[in-house]
Amino acid sequence: MSLVRRVAAELIGTAFLVMAVIGSGIAASRLSPGDAGLQLLENSLITGAALVALILALQPVSAAFNPVVTLVEVVLGKLGRQDAVPLVLAQFAGGFLGAVVANLMFGLDAVTISTHHRTGGGLWLGEVVATLGLVLVIFGSVRSGRTETIAYAVGGYITAAYWFTSSTSFANPAVTVARMFSNTFAGIAPSSVAMFVLMQVIGGALAVGAVTVLYPLDTISLPDPEQVPTGEGSRP
């Protein structure tokens, strides 16, 4: 697979993911003013649905959209370090582009620095949990030979994690940095970004350990396609 194509997929996919996060946040705040719970519901459903669609479309090329996921791929030997650098840069560039486009679509300045401070031990723990779970969902699916389920697993997990984590599950350094450039519902103040990213990296590191314990490569046996039941045997 051409590295250029993979870089393009990561840039485009991350841009659309950030557009979904920020754009749906702006729309929710305008359509449901004064109802934070409904705004979060709208934001989470649109983000989860967008993730499913983007992963289904771009997975044949590259569909991490997340520097932590890319770094975990390097640690687990799925990706070379030299390839990881341009992919991660593309994710950050795509995130920024997505934030700018989302702002412009809703009639805002291209860049508006967020003043939404997100800080505190509970929120930081939430980011560790959110990222650990996300990486576990992705690589648990990969190592159990069910890569076709990743889009639905990730979309469902992120939708749920918006609600069960205190931080609303940023779980992605590129998306976190991008959300700094939109002073809207989904934004995060620059002073809060560093700790969020650090907690995401810690969550990713913990997930590597969990994946290694739960899915050691030498114990995985993928099904033989010729032996997978097709349902034909139940016909009369």
TrEMBL record:
Location within or outside the cell: Membrane
Predominant location: membrane
Protein topology in the membrane: Multi-pass membrane protein
Keyword Membrane among UniProt keywords: yes
Transmembrane domains' residue ranges: 7-28, 48-72, 84-106, 121-142, 149-165, 185-215
Record's keyword annotation contains Transmembrane: yes
Entry's family note: Belongs to the MIP/aquaporin (TC 1.A.8) family.
UniProt-recorded name of the protein: MIP/aquaporin family protein
Lineage: Bacteria, Bacillati, Actinomycetota, Actinomycetes, Propionibacteriales
